[in-house]
Amino acid sequence: MPTRKRFVAGNWKMNTTLAEAKALGAAVAKGVPSDSPVAVAVCPPFPWLLPVGEAIKGSAVALGAQDVHSEKKGAFTGEVSPAMLIECGCKYVIIGHSERRHILGESDSAINQKLHTALDEGLHVILCMGETLAERDRSLQERVFQRQVYAACAGLTDEQFGRLIIAYEPVWAIGTGKVATPEQAQEAHAFVRGKLRQLYGEKIADALPIIYGGSVTPDNTAGLMNQPDVDGALVGGASLKADSFLAIVKAASA
Ligand SMILES: O=C(CO)COP(=O)(O)O
């Protein structure tokens, strides 16, 4: 049986004041035990990376960013490079979140470029993917996974695969309170893992964490985590309160 460490990350999106972010970071850091069986990260907005990094310093909680640019540096007004994130203390970066794909129009190829640059520069990447409701209604989800995941993974080295986490986030479940059932999540995760196995071999497929995101709460975490291919959670709304985020981490630790 493969042993994948579970991973729970909080995506704070465009929320929190500076004071709230520092307090939330500190409370999460305090609540996660140093010997936590679950790896934990928080992903605050860019301007709060340094102060939140300070608030979680020395704890078991790692820092992540919500996006990154695909080039290493240059004339890209308003953008942030992988090296800047690393200097801010980030271990992780989220790439390809559905809000960026659908609201900001990020294409698969732009996401793939970001993924490769971020991995080349040394970050761990949380690559988001998932189908819309219209796509699920037409049973197109597996085609969507294929497009979003496999193109992104082409050309990665074994070492880079070791720094990749896939987050399955069905668009219809994000911020809607409509969580995927454990069976729906398992089916999607198993499909993705099966394809990774076909394309890149057993070792890579078995080691790669696939986490679920979309209306995760303390109440539905255990059911999702009981599925063999669900390795953790990417949490939006419920990560904005330390109590609920820590309850999710605890449920994922069981
Ligand atoms: O988009 C998400 C995490 O990246 C999920 O958001 P919610 O947990 O608020 O549904």
Structure notes:
With 254 residues, the chain is an alpha/beta fold. It has a single domain (6-253), classed as Alpha-Beta Barrel (TIM Barrel). It is 44% helix and 17% strand. The chain contains 12 helices and 8 strands. It has an 8-stranded parallel barrel, surrounded by 7 helices. Helix 5 runs parallel beside helix 7. The longest helix is centred in the last third of the chain and has 19 residues, at 182-200. The chain is globular and about 45 Å long. The model has no long low-confidence stretch (mean pLDDT 96).
What structural class do helix, strand and pairing data support? alpha/beta
Low-confidence runs (pLDDT<50, min 5 residues)? none
Number of H- or I-type helical stretches? 12
Principal-axis shape equals globular
Which cofactors or ions or other ligands sit in this model?
Answer: 1,3-dihydroxyacetonephosphate
The portion of residues assigned to helices is 40-55%
CATH class: Alpha Beta
Subcellular location: Cytoplasm
GO molecular function: triose-phosphate isomerase activity
Keywords: Cytoplasm, Gluconeogenesis, Glycolysis, Isomerase
Protein name: Triosephosphate isomerase
